[in-house]
Amino acid sequence: MTALGDGVKRFAGFWYAFVVGDDWTIALGVVASVAAAYGLLEAGATESWVLLPLGAVAVLALSIRRANRRAS
Amino acid sequence: MHWGGTFTTTFLASCVEAIEMVAIVVGVGAIRGWRSALVGAGTGFVVLVVVGVAFGTALTAVPIDALRLVVGTLLLVFGLQWLSKGVRRVARKGLAGDEEEDVPEGPGATRFGLDWTSFVLAFKGVLLEGLEIAFIVVTFGSTAGRLPVAAVAGSAALVLVATVGAVFHGSLTRIPRSVLILVVGLLLSTFGTFWAAEGVGIDWPGDELALPVLLGFFGAAAAVLVSLQRRASPVLAAQAAA
């Protein structure tokens, strides 16, 4: 691999580790929750604000479950 | 509006934003170290001043919703990562658990000798909240035709809240690390949820009054998850009680 390729790979790896961290499901779940809240808003739902905190707690619970499975 | 009215409304509105800013910087600094958090906060402040000088009263042209969406989403991701670690740690060791090996490793890589996570969180917190204070100053000041009064009020709020944060940050070292991880995870998740939703155009009922409600909601959820963790593993409950 060229030096440029190595540099790009290291750069991408750094940002992946920085944003996504050790549990990719959190980043994916948060983006999905934000997108779903936006979708609800666009569909005309007046209570679309409810979705994001509920989605965040669901993502948190799943992340803890995954961490428990990894540890056992 | 009388100049006193302009000062008071600008000062109080700016205080709310300044408290959010200082809470993030102090929380991140207390857990991950002060140097990177303060360098991040200082850099954010410098960028804020440069943007303020460059844009002046045209500052309201900055796409604040896009900024809220990006910063809020990132804060929510980081907040949930810390909350996940905090819940498992408290379930395992109780609130007083203080072992160093459990410092939240997070996604923090080191760059330029700085803890990047700490730097970026503090930087974004100061930049976003600082911009919101600047908007408040420009909006209230222009509307009342008293921009200098509003600028003094916004600056006074920032100085006051930052001073309170600086005076009391030392007392954070006496708080068990497990509690700090949990609290900072709660704060980041709360602000992240609030800003990300605002970024996509959602209006919170009660506007910023939704923040303490969100904090309570995440706190209750964390308490339930700690309890479920211990129930799932009686060994954890025994360790935490020991």
Summarize the topology.
The complex is a heterodimer of chains A (72) and B (242).
Chain A: H1 3-19, H2 24-42, H3 51-71
Chain B: H1 3-32, H2 34-55, H3 64-93, E1 110-111, E2 114-115, H4 116-144, H5 147-168, H6 177-199, H7 210-232, H8 234-241
Antiparallel strand pairs in B: 1-2
Textual characterization of the structure:
- The complex is a heterodimer of chains A (72) and B (242).
- Chain A is an all-alpha fold and 72 residues long.
- Chain A has helices spanning 3-19, 24-42, 51-71.
- In chain A, helix 2 packs antiparallel against helix 3 (51-71).
- The longest helix of chain A has 21 residues, at 51-71.
- Chain A is flat, with a radius of gyration of 17 Å.
- The model of chain A has no long low-confidence stretch (mean pLDDT 87).
- Chain B is mainly alpha-helical and 242 residues long.
- A two-stranded antiparallel sheet of chain B has the order 1-2.
- At the A-B interface, helix 1, helix 2 and helix 3 of A face helix 3, helix 4, helix 6 and helix 7 of B.
Spell out the helices and strands of chain A N to C. HHH
Oligomeric state, counting identical vs distinct chains: heterodimer
Low confidence ranges of chain A: none
Principal-axes geometry of chain A comes out as flat
- Beta-strand proportion of chain B: under 5%
- By DSSP, the count of extended strands of chain A is 0
- Rounded Rg of chain A: 17 Å
Q: Average pLDDT across residues of chain A?
A: 87
- Mean pLDDT across all amino acids of chain B: 83
Q: What does the largest sheet of chain B look like?
A: 2 strands, antiparallel
Radius of gyration of chain B: 19 Å
As a percent range, the share of strand residues of chain A is under 5%
